[in-house]
Amino acid sequence: MLDQGTAPPATEPSAPKASGLSALVRRKPVDVLVAEGGQGEGGSLRRSLSMWQLTMISIGATLGTGIFVVLGEAVPLAGPAVTLAFVFAGLTALFSALSYAELAGTIPVAGSSYSYAYATMGELVAWVCGWCLLLEYGVSVAAVAVGWGDYLNELLDGTIGVTLPAALSSPPGDGGIFNLPALIVVVLAMLFLLGGAKESARANTIMVVVKIAALVLFCAIGFMGFKSGNYSDFMPLGAGSVGAAGAILFFSYIGFDAASTAGEEAKDPKKDLPRAIMLSLVIVTALYVLVAAVAVGAWDWKKFEGSEASLAAIMNDVTGQSFWGTLLAAGAVISIASVVLTVLYGQTRILFAMSRDGLVPKVFGKVNPKTGTPRTNTVIVSLFCGVLAAAVPLGELVNATSIGTLFAFALVNIAVVVLRYTKPELQRSFKVPFGPVFPVLGFAFCGYSMYSLDMITWAVFGIWMAVGLVFYFLYGMRRSRLATAEK
């Protein structure tokens, strides 16, 4: 439900005095967050993104990973019930998306859930949330870039009959030495981002249209090989398998919140951000469920256990021709490149917000006055993610991405409730229906999904959080702008 209204008048940044343990819960006022919107070191971000472009950013960041990369891992866990697993993961994301929509319309800034937590639960919780987002965006960029190389080889093999050697197209641990395609796709995304947000959004929109067309084509051809017998035993591994698969598939919904990181570059953020978040989630969920249903209908679910399982392989099997699989591989190459572009964008904007608050070095907050982009930030993040994808075995760190995202989403659901009670006078362009019920359900779904992940994932997550807390107490807590304002 949409309410008319505008943001309250901006005031000059100020901070309440805090010392000792109270410094950990110091909050950044909402009006200060909004007043600082777009401002960086040496320049300002530019408001150039429409509602359509914001929606395409969220779709671009989300659509692709679950279908082109993770589907082959989830089907062996849930069997034909993988469609329910996608619905479960989508429902988990939906309640959190509603909370994101309310907060994005109320606090339209670049920091996403990090900024929302700063305004409602204090600096320490905000730091934890921001650190989780760095895991979510940074590692997911690397993980998706790794998958890009596989589809690039399929495309090269189907068109010119040549593939890159495993040593240069696979990450360490998978028979390779250096994943060159992974580095290339990240560098290409970096070049687009350096051109400006509007230019990047245009390129992303084209790529999103291509990826949707590729998935629709798969459904049309895959349906020709649909066998109802593949659904005769719908839940062969039990009901618990749906939850386990859903927790893994939640990785495929990472990115729907990407529009919220564009809060300071949207033309009309209070209205457009909530709409973009909800519209993108609906479109992505519908496509995921449809493609998963057709894929299992065309292929017996047990065949997904091998590494050869992919949408391109299914199309080749159904048609008996390699042309269609090659065409889909081309769509996957563009699709995954779009994910890298938009998720990398979100990563840079979150670091931009954290830098402006003093919690990370100032270099991440410098804005190039000509392009209106955080240029140095973009180069550093891109090169880091590119090298991570190309040369470092990711292993359980990929699953840790899901748990970090779930944790951040859980905090967003709490933030909605806190802000409703502490700042009821704020004018909200969108409100989560049924008061605190949906945010509580969103929190519960996130908690259950986190519980479903294995102990190794929890261990990796714990190590990541420990490193983040050490950095905060040694650097961020003392250099925070709220801390320096108290002196």
UniProtKB/TrEMBL annotation:
This is Amino acid permease. The chain crosses the membrane at residues 54-75, 81-103, 124-148, 176-194, 206-226, 238-256, 277-299, 323-346, 376-394, 400-420, 432-450, 456-475. InterPro entries: AA/rel_permease1, AA_transporter. Signal peptide: none annotated. It is found in: Membrane. It is a multi-pass membrane protein. Keywords: Membrane, Transmembrane, Transmembrane helix. NCBIfam families: 2A0306. PANTHER family: CATIONIC AMINO ACID TRANSPORT INTEGRAL MEMBRANE PROTEIN ROCE-RELATED, INNER MEMBRANE TRANSPORTER YGJI-RELATED. Pfam families: AA_permease_2.
